[in-house]
Design a protein that fits this description.
Blueprint lengths: L4 H14 L14 E3 L4 H6 L3 E9 L6 E9 L2 E8 L14 E5 L6
Antiparallel strand pairs: 1-5, 2-3, 3-4, 4-5
Length: 107
């Protein structure tokens, strides 16, 4: 099943706006993303494909970061990688943080 390009654009925009939140932080009950224990490598090994990327600066640190959107049918993950400097070649030693797109809890 292919995702229409409009939905992919929305997902990438959501990821850009949410890139500052740590995937390992305690999630609020109404959070759109849930921290994943799997790495980006694990996701790709399990059939997920990278369907979009974007680069944004984290609001808290100002460091540039890359957001990778991965999809397999109706399941979507985002993985965030923070760069140590402005140079695209210099990467942080911090592993990528991945989170799964979930239905937020509503009262």
């Amino acid at each position: 099943m292919k995702t229409p390009s409009g939905i992919l654009t929305i997902l990438v925009a959501l990821a850009s706006g949410c890139a500052v939140a740590s995937a390992h932080a305690d999630a609020l009950p109404n959070a759109q993303w849930r921290a994943a224990e799997m790495s980006m490598f694990d996701l790709i090994q399990n059939g997920y494909a990278i369907v979009g990327t974007t680069s944004v600066a984290a609001r808290t640190s100002g460091l540039p970061g890359d957001v990778y959107m991965l999809q397999k049918t109706n399941s979507v993950y985002r993985c965030v990688e923070t760069r140590a400097t402005e140079s695209a070649a210099a990467r942080s030693s911090t592993p990528l943080r991945c989170a799964e797109l979930v239905q937020p809890y509503r009262d």
